UniProtKB/TrEMBL annotation:
Coiled coil: none annotated. GO terms for cellular component: membrane. This is DoxX protein. InterPro entries: DoxX (IPR032808). Keywords: Membrane, Transmembrane, Transmembrane helix. It is a multi-pass membrane protein. The keyword Ribosomal protein does not apply. The keyword Transmembrane helix applies. It is found in: Membrane. It comes from Flavobacterium cucumis. The chain crosses the membrane at residues 47-71, 83-104, 110-128.
Length: 129
């Protein structure tokens, strides 16, 4: 039986992370420049390209796992502990990394925004567990 709600949240996470990853790849230099200023007064000041690379990897893998989970659910009717579950878990971890960065930079509005993404990500982990 197809469960629509988890599929919709997985699609939301996939779109979010794959688009964000694409943007980072397309405008790597611009992202590094902006983030260097954003994290200038933090412990990440000299680690921006490395940290951005880690976030890029997490986002792309999260997005791919979410898409794979949707396909797996539709083709194999796998709901519990399928690829989507692992995509949702990695999405939560990715969002925690992003939240940590925003809090470090004292960008509290940015941190609040990440919570908006975190809520459905945790919800889909709950549904698929």
């Amino acid at each position: 039986m197809i469960q629509v709600a988890p599929l919709l949240v997985l699609a939301f996470l996939a779109i979010t992370f794959l688009q964000s990853g694409y943007d980072k790849i397309k405008d790597w230099k611009g992202n590094v420049e902006w983030l260097t200023g954003h994290f200038a007064n933090t412990i990440l000041a000299k680690q921006v390209p490395f940290a951005l690379g880690i976030v890029l990897l997490l986002e792309v893998v999260s997005g791919i796992l979410c898409v794979s989970g949707i396909i797996q659910h539709l083709v194999q009717d796998v709901v519990i502990r399928g690829l989507g579950f692992y995509g949702a878990i990695l999405s939560c971890i990715t969002l925690l990394f992003l939240l940590f960065g925003q809090r470090l930079a004292k960008d509290y509005d940015g941190a609040r925004t990440i919570v908006i993404y975190f809520i459905p990500a945790v919800l889909v982990v709950f549904w698929l567990n």
